[in-house]
Amino acid sequence: MLPFVVIVGRPNVGKSTLFNRLLRQNKAMVHDRPGVTRDSLYGRVQGRTRDYTLVDTGGLVLEQGAQLEEEIYEQVREAMHSADLILFMVDGSAGVTALDEQLAAMLRQSRRPVRLVVNKVDGEERAALVEGDFYSLGFDMNMVSAAHGYNMPVLQEAIESSL
Ligand code: GDP
Ligand code: MG
Known about the structure:
By secondary structure, this protein is an alpha/beta fold. The chain has a single domain, classed as Rossmann fold (3-Layer(aba) Sandwich), CATH 3.40.50. The chain is 38% helix and 21% strand. It is built from 5 helices and 6 strands. The chain has a 6-stranded mixed beta sheet with strand order 2-3-1-4-5-6, sandwiched between helices. Helix 2 packs parallel to helix 3. The site of magnesium ion (MG) has 5 residues, from helix 1. It comes from Desulfonatronospira thiodismutans ASO3-1. This is GTPase Der. Associates with the 50S ribosomal subunit. GTPase that plays an essential role in the late steps of ribosome biogenesis.
């Protein structure tokens, strides 16, 4: 069985955009509205040195904010059971949110390898500006733009060498 790499994070950080880019095809729906991907999506990534199964945990469409948060926690718990590597995605243009901190606390307690993926960073200049904000979360990190491709080869290398 191929190793499982699971993307988690709050809605709208760019999980489906990353999933699509790593799969090089439009399998996941990408939307402006948070939580539009209903179920987890699976795809096989053929990497340079390793193949793996990539999972986009999406998010349920729910009316209540509180329920939505509970749903995200549930997805992270599931990821903690099944993943060989967790990609914890955050929005570099938004800074660290309270929900990011709660997810980080859950993930630190998991025994799984976790890599922080700071998305929506589109170049060295932005990277230098936002890097410090995210160190406090306490994970190895990559700063990328899933939409524009910045630093994607570095992330791919890091994923494959963690498997
Ligand atoms: P998800 O809810 O975490 O799956 O997030 P999506 O992949 O659906 O993306 C949410 C929004 O963020 C969409 O409007 C994307 O186009 C946008 N987005 C994703 N990656 C980037 C990026 O690298 N830079 C910018 N500026 N926007 C991005
Ligand atoms: Mg999505």
